[in-house]
Structure prediction request, 515 residues.
Amino acid sequence: MSVTLSTHGVTPADVIAVARHEAPIQIAPEALEAVAAVRAHVERLAHSDTPVYGISTGFGALANKHIPEEQRTQLQKSLIRSHAAGMGDPVEREVVRALMFLRAKTLASSRTGVRPVVLQTMVGLLNAGITPLVREYGSLGCSGDLAPLSHCALVLMGEGEATDRDGVLRPVPELFAEAGLTPVTLEEKEGLALINGTDGMLGQLLMAIADLDELLSVADLTGSMSVEALLGTDQAFRPALHLPLRPHPGQATSADDMFRVLAGSAIVASHREGDSRVQDAYSLRCSPQVTGGARDTVDHARLVASRELAAAIDNPVVLEDGTVTSNGNFHGAPVAYVLDFLAIVTADLASLAERRTDRMLDVARSAGLPPFLADDAGVDSGLMIAQYTQAGLVSENKRLAVPASVDSIPSSAMQEDHVSMGWHAARKLRKSVDNLRRVLAVELVASARGIELRAPLTPSPATGAVITELRKTAEGPGPDRYLAPDLLAAEAAIASGAILAAAESVVGKLGRTEA
Prediction:
């Protein structure tokens, strides 16, 4: 399925399709026509006597320096070469593809003043699977993601470093020749148009939202399994206790998920009579409030992302009347704030899951389960160290929850004296989301083992289906064995969607309140 670039923008699904699944891209003819028409305005300004920032002047703190026409091609080359100053490890292929596609989206908006060939070549690189090598550090999240985008623009010029579709680093001229592409010689305005955007941080935000949409439902699922393993009650998740009493939609959704997942559980039903406990611990009873709060936070981030996705960010920008004017829309603050916000809730979700897991391993709190869910406690350690791994991941997520957007270091000789650090917020959120997936994988392994140790009592049909799916790649209770492969298999089963699909095959779609 192909994705079409038009003057009307793209959807989050389009970004995911291109970044992660290499969907081919087409450019709508009307977009090319609009790009060409706006370029005519830029060329008129380029040949006038009036200096215009980014067209006939220097950049940043050098904006007051006039550049004669014969030096402007060199100006564009120098801009990109000097700004491609990243350091550190290469960032992930999907991140680079997302930021390239988002920059192409903005070029297609006809607000940047580039020639059609610039847009066509950018799309050609994406369709050929050519991925510029972008380094971890270099963006301050203001004036756009300058260094990351400059590394991409450098490849557009036929320079820099890039990998092929198989991820092999190869000479850029060789990659161009193989794809039948010609490097672009940048003209007035085009260098800035390629690098003045929030595309890196926005692309990572969109992918984090997509990941969290799934992981929130996984958290409802593993939380339900922990309730079952710990002989908890499903009554705290009844619909009457949520939306009518506390109208947070995310909470109602998570409670509905858990109530449906636990339906038909003989384990839950077994202790409805004769159980002296009045109520479950917070990590069980309050799961919908925490996971639901995270859902509402993700929805807020989705709103911000949708607004940013609809933007045409460049500086200077070409207005509808052909005026080229400076602005501050490249500042990443709106995106940076929600990236940091998501890191906070991701850390808290991981903390909640770890607390449920620890409760299952503690013989004093596990309602009759063996210590550490071990086969022969003392001889066997069971899942003791799996919880250590969880704790380490949770601790790192707490550190990653420290906001990046509260910091700012002035740059460009104090011309750029306040920056967003949105790129850094995005980078740490990616790590936090990956860590959450691992924490939930450990809870999945522990809760599945706890449920199986409740035999002959049977779990709910939904959790039974999940355990069946998990057992395809991870072994059940028994004497100690090499544990890491089981944890990694659980993580892979979550990442592939297999665990969520197993539950949904029984109860229908999770992650929404059925009206």
About this structure: Residues 246 and 252 are 9 Å apart (CA to CA). The first strand starts at residue 3 and ends at 5. The beta strands are 3-5, 25-27, 87-90, 131-132, 135-137, 162-163, 169-170, 317-318, 324-325.
